Each structure stands twice: as C-alpha cells, then as structure tokens.
Amino acid sequence: MSSARTPRPAPRLSRTPAPSGRGRSRGFAAVLIVLYGILALAATGRASYELTTKFAEAPLPYSLSLLAAITYLAVTILLVRGGGASRTALLLCCAELAGIVAVGSLTHLAPGLFPDSTVWSDFGAGYGYVPLILPVVAILYLSRQRRRAGAPPGAAA
C-alpha cells in the first residue's frame, strides 16, 4: 500500500462578480423616473387647463402649478440622463422641496393668497402627499449615489 495521496484539485473560484447593488440602484432610479414622469404629466395637464380656462380667477396658484409641472419634467429628464446630471437633479429636488414647504405653509398661514389649490397646496394633499415625499426620497437617493461615486457633497459632478 502506498501512503502517497493524490492531490485534490484546487477549488474553483466563481467568475461571477459579487453583487454591487448597482442593479438595485438603477431599478430604484427607474421607479423615481416613473413617479416623476407621472407627476409631470398630471401637473402639466392641470396647469394647462387652469391657465387656459380660468387664469384670471387665481393667477398665483395656477402659475405655481405650472412651476411644479416644469420642475417635475426637469427632474424626470435629469434622472433619465443620470451621471453628471445627478448634481443638478439633487439641487432641483432641494428647490422643489423648499417650494412645497413654502407653498404648503402659505396655504395654511395665508389662505387668501390661494383661492384655488395648486399641486403643492397643503403639502401636496391633493396628490396623496406624493409631492412632499418624493423629493425627500429623491434627495436621499441622489445623495447616496454621490457618496458611492466618491464625490464630496458640494463637488461638481
């Protein structure tokens, strides 16, 4: 009997890369794009109707609905572009959130300014508070993406 052992083959290393989370991240970006796109369509339809049929009744709210529509459309486009556009999207989402908080507060503090509602009235209550929640989620997502890419928070992308 021989005491020599036959060498075992080395274990095969998997050639499949470890999950990086990028697929999940792009999937979440797609959800944001769809939600912003829906809001863009809804706000554009609303603003178009209001501005063409009854602008004289409440010019401030109807103009703010148009501003909301433009904001949602711009964020949608920036999210689709991704990459370097993410910094601009982040800044626009911050401005959007400030607008929602300002308009939402004013609808309670100075209701006379708003004889009719806007997309952002009452913090987006007419849209299920999605206009308030969505920019917060987008800001968190975009900030996290920037950190993952190694960009300092204030650096140009």
From TrEMBL:
Residues 1-23 are annotated as: Disordered. The keyword Transmembrane helix applies. The chain crosses the membrane at residues 28-49, 61-80, 89-111, 123-142. Keywords: Membrane, Transmembrane, Transmembrane helix. It comes from the Bacteria. This is Integral membrane protein. It comes from Brachybacterium equifaecis.
